[in-house]
Amino acid sequence: MAVEAAECLSALRGVQIALNHNVRKLQLETDSQILFYALRNPKPDISLFGSLVQEILDLRSSFEDLKFSWIRRVGNYVAHYLASLALSLEEPLFSGSLPTSCVDSFYADLQAY
Q: What angle, 0 to 180 degrees and rounded to 10, lies between the N-to-C axes of helices 3-20 and 33-40?
C-alpha cells in the first residue's frame, strides 16, 4: 500500500472510531499535505487513495462539524509514536486514553506549538 493510502486509511479509521463513540465535532489533523489538499479540494480519483478520501468525505454529514487541518510533522510526535506502537502489536488496541508510554511525545507536541 502506498504511503498516501496508508495515511488516508488511518485517518478514515480515526473518523470511524470518533463516529462510533458519538463524537459530534471533530478536527482531523494530518501532516500529509497530499491528504489535506485531497480532503479540502476533492477531485475525481478512482485509485485506492481517492476512494478512501471519498469515504471520509461521505462520513462528513454524520458529524455536526468535521474540519481538516494540516500540521507540521514536528507537531505530530504523538501520532507517529502511536503509529509505530500499532505496527508492533499483533492485535488492534484502542482504550480511549493515551498510553503512558507516549507522554514524552505528547509534551514534545505541546512544545512544538
A: 60
User: Are the CB atoms for 50 and 12 separated by under 8 Å?
Assistant: no
CA distance linking residue 92 with residue 2, whole number of Å: 21
Q: How far apart are CA 70 and CA 51, in angstroms?
A: 20
- Note whether 105 and 73 are within 8 A (CB): no
Digit-coded pLDDT (tens) for 8-62: 888 888 888 888 888 888 888 888 888 888 898 888 878 888 898 899 999 999 9
Q: Rg for the chain (alpha carbons), in Å?
A: 14
Overall pTM surpassing 0.90 (yes/no): no
